[in-house]
């Protein structure tokens, strides 16, 4: 896997940049719009921290100016139904520190400002992202997959299917799993339902 790339900016491409390395190999690197806008002149040296995506039909490189942005991208693509294109769109509007600021609040509205993300999707992404970033800060990288993020996603889906608002259900689940991270889905659901029922009375 390619994790870092340095070379000459050979050309700007529709997806981002073509980078020519010292060994004479050129790589196409996909970039967020904000990073692409800040590229130097063709012929200048560029370097990126890279996330390598391997699929059956393609290998794609995604470039980032710092490790924090790459880690945030990997958190984003770990969210169900959120692909690399949407993740780059989010990072085009909010870099990693700005996104953490968004998640530190209680309003998913800023995510709805990202092109292609509506209010409902913004709410879902906000709840997932808030929890996953909390896990990262606790030293448990969700992008490398752990039990808790999967439990959170599955339990949240169950609560939403039962008619609970996604924001309220996500907040309750975060509190439960922060206190008891080893719970399985059924245990988390039982505790969440008990707490949500108490909030309704």
UniProtKB/TrEMBL annotation:
<dbReference type="GO" id="GO:0005524">
    <property type="term" value="F:ATP binding"/>
</dbReference>
<keyword id="KW-0347">Helicase</keyword>
<keyword id="KW-0067">ATP-binding</keyword>
<dbReference type="InterPro" id="IPR000085">
    <property type="entry name" value="RuvA"/>
</dbReference>
<feature type="domain" description="Helix-hairpin-helix DNA-binding motif class 1">
    <location>
        <begin position="74"/>
        <end position="93"/>
    </location>
</feature>
<dbReference type="Pfam" id="PF14520">
    <property type="entry name" value="HHH_5"/>
</dbReference>
<dbReference type="InterPro" id="IPR013849">
    <property type="entry name" value="DNA_helicase_Holl-junc_RuvA_I"/>
</dbReference>
<dbReference type="GO" id="GO:0006310">
    <property type="term" value="P:DNA recombination"/>
</dbReference>
<dbReference type="Pfam" id="PF01330">
    <property type="entry name" value="RuvA_N"/>
</dbReference>
<keyword id="KW-0227">DNA damage</keyword>
<dbReference type="InterPro" id="IPR003583">
    <property type="entry name" value="Hlx-hairpin-Hlx_DNA-bd_motif"/>
</dbReference>
<keyword id="KW-0547">Nucleotide-binding</keyword>
<keyword id="KW-0378">Hydrolase</keyword>
<dbReference type="InterPro" id="IPR010994">
    <property type="entry name" value="RuvA_2-like"/>
</dbReference>
<dbReference type="GO" id="GO:0006281">
    <property type="term" value="P:DNA repair"/>
</dbReference>
<feature type="domain" description="Helix-hairpin-helix DNA-binding motif class 1">
    <location>
        <begin position="109"/>
        <end position="128"/>
    </location>
</feature>
<dbReference type="InterPro" id="IPR012340">
    <property type="entry name" value="NA-bd_OB-fold"/>
</dbReference>
<dbReference type="GO" id="GO:0009378">
    <property type="term" value="F:four-way junction helicase activity"/>
</dbReference>
<keyword id="KW-0963">Cytoplasm</keyword>
<protein>
    <submittedName>
        <fullName>Holliday junction dna helicase ruva</fullName>
    </submittedName>
</protein>
<dbReference type="GO" id="GO:0003677">
    <property type="term" value="F:DNA binding"/>
</dbReference>
<dbReference type="InterPro" id="IPR036267">
    <property type="entry name" value="RuvA_C_sf"/>
</dbReference>
<dbReference type="InterPro" id="IPR011114">
    <property type="entry name" value="RuvA_C"/>
</dbReference>
<dbReference type="Pfam" id="PF07499">
    <property type="entry name" value="RuvA_C"/>
</dbReference>
<keyword id="KW-0234">DNA repair</keyword>
<dbReference type="GO" id="GO:0009379">
    <property type="term" value="C:Holliday junction helicase complex"/>
</dbReference>
<keyword id="KW-0238">DNA-binding</keyword>
């Amino acid at each position: 896997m390619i994790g870092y790339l340095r070379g000459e900016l050979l050309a700007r491409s529709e997806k981002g940049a073509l980078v020519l390395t010292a060994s004479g190999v050129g790589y196409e690197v996909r970039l967020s719009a904000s990073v692409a806008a800040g590229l130097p002149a063709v012929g200048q040296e560029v370097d990126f921290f890279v996330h390598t995506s391997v699929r059956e039909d393609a290998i794609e490189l995604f470039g980032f100016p710092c490790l924090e942005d790459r880690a945030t991208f990997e958190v984003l693509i770990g969210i169900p139904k959120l692909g690399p294109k949407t993740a780059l769109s989010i990072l085009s509007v909010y870099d990693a520190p700005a996104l953490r600021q968004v998640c530190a609040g209680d309003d998913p509205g800023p995510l709805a400002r990202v092109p292609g993300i509506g209010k409902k999707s913004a709410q879902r992404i906000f709840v997932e992202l808030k929890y996953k970033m909390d896990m990262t800060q606790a030293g448990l990288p969700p992008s490398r997959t752990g039990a808790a993020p999967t439990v959170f996603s599955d339990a949240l889906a169950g609560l939403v299917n039962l008619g609970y608002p996604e924001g309220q259900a996500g907040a309750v689940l975060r509190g439960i799993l922060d206190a008891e991270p080893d719970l399985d889905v059924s245990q988390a659901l039982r505790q969440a339902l008990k707490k949500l029922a108490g909030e309704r009375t």
